[in-house]
Amino acid sequence: MYDFEIGKAVEEVVKRGAKRILVQAPDGLKQFLGDLISRLSQVCEVYVSMSPCYGGCDLEDDKAAIIGADMVIHIGHRKYIEGAERVHTLYLPAPHFADVKGLASLAASELRRKGFRRIGVLANLQHIEYVGEFARAIEAEGLAPVVDRQTGGLVLGCQTGGAKRIESEVDAFLFIGGGEFHPLGVAMDVEKEVFVADPYRNELRGTAEIVKKTLSQRWWAIMEARKAKRFGVIVVMKPGQFSIRSAEKIAFELRAAGKEAHMLVGDDVSPERISSFPFVEAFIVTGCPRIATDTCQDPNRPVLNEAEAWKMLELINASRK
């Protein structure tokens, strides 16, 4: 189902003379790692991280160093920040193999039926190779596919430039991939409809309802945080997400607005972790913007990302004038 490029991984380990390696992968891919681990174990000692992995920004160099690993194999993502790794890291994107010809035809005909003509084609890393297939299917329906030249249509959970750059050229977007994480990120950043061509379910679906629900939740969080007196400003310690200057700047502005700002640091930002601070009325996460919107929602206390925090401060300061 996924290509983990086992031969490439083994070749790199042997070439570098690595004796011990750390393998990290998203939770959804861990279940498929058996053959890769078995093959690597023939040439080196293999440790597999049990921690979740959310992107190329989520590096585990510290764990690699502690266990004495010579190398990290990072699966499912690409390099996020040049030079961020302290241990040599091999990135394996793990493309998903599927027959998408029927799905591409279905998606194209449905978009034509809905009245769209110019379609922006997007995909996550596991499905980027199918952009061409879907573009051809769209053309076969008499529509015009549009693909961002800079990214080839690739979008990440926190990087949607491949969509925003072509937004003025399209009537709607078609995202290739499973789940809601990536297409929701796009849909929240553009004003055109986003449809999902899901190769796991072999279906086309819209995102309008989930976008409406998410926007409602985010505005609730901003307006509730505006009322808070005591804030926890969280510095995420993952190498690709570390932004202490942003956190300190937000804390400074909160204090200038008459609020309390307590600085918190951590690798794992989750509902369980923030529950240890019942005296904090609202949290601001300065790491990945999707932590606040997707993985660390609290039904009783607002959790904002950096952009939302600045919007909240703008509202606070306007009300004080």
Q: How are the secondary structure elements laid out?
A:
Elements: H1 6-16, E1 20-24, H2 27-30, H3 34-40, E2 45-48, H4 61-67, E3 71-75, E4 89-92, H5 101-113, E5 118-123, H6 131-140, E6 144-146, H7 161-164, E7 172-176, H8 181-189, E8 193-198, E9 203-206, H9 208-227, E10 230-236, H10 244-256, E11 260-266, H11 271-274, E12 282-285, H12 289-295, E13 303-305, H13 306-320
Parallel strand pairs: 1-2, 1-3, 3-4, 5-6, 5-7, 7-8, 10-11, 10-12, 12-13
Antiparallel strand pairs: 8-9
What does this structure look like?
The chain is α/β, with parallel strands linked by helices and 321 residues long. The chain is 39% helix and 20% strand. The chain folds into three domains: 6-92, Rossmann fold (3-Layer(aba) Sandwich); 101-206, Diphthamide synthesis DPH1/DPH2 domain 2 (Rossmann fold); 213-320, Rossmann fold. It has helices at residues 6-16, 27-30, 34-40, 61-67, 101-113, 131-140, 161-164, 181-189, 208-227, 244-256, 271-274, 289-295, 306-320, and strands at 20-24, 45-48, 71-75, 89-92, 118-123, 144-146, 172-176, 193-198, 203-206, 230-236, 260-266, 282-285, 303-305. The strands form three sheets. Strands 6-5-7-8-9 form a five-stranded mixed β-sheet, with helices on both faces. Strands 2-1-3-4 form a four-stranded parallel β-sheet, sandwiched between helices. A hairpin with a 4-residue loop joins strand 8 and strand 9. Helix 10 runs parallel beside helix 13 (306-320).
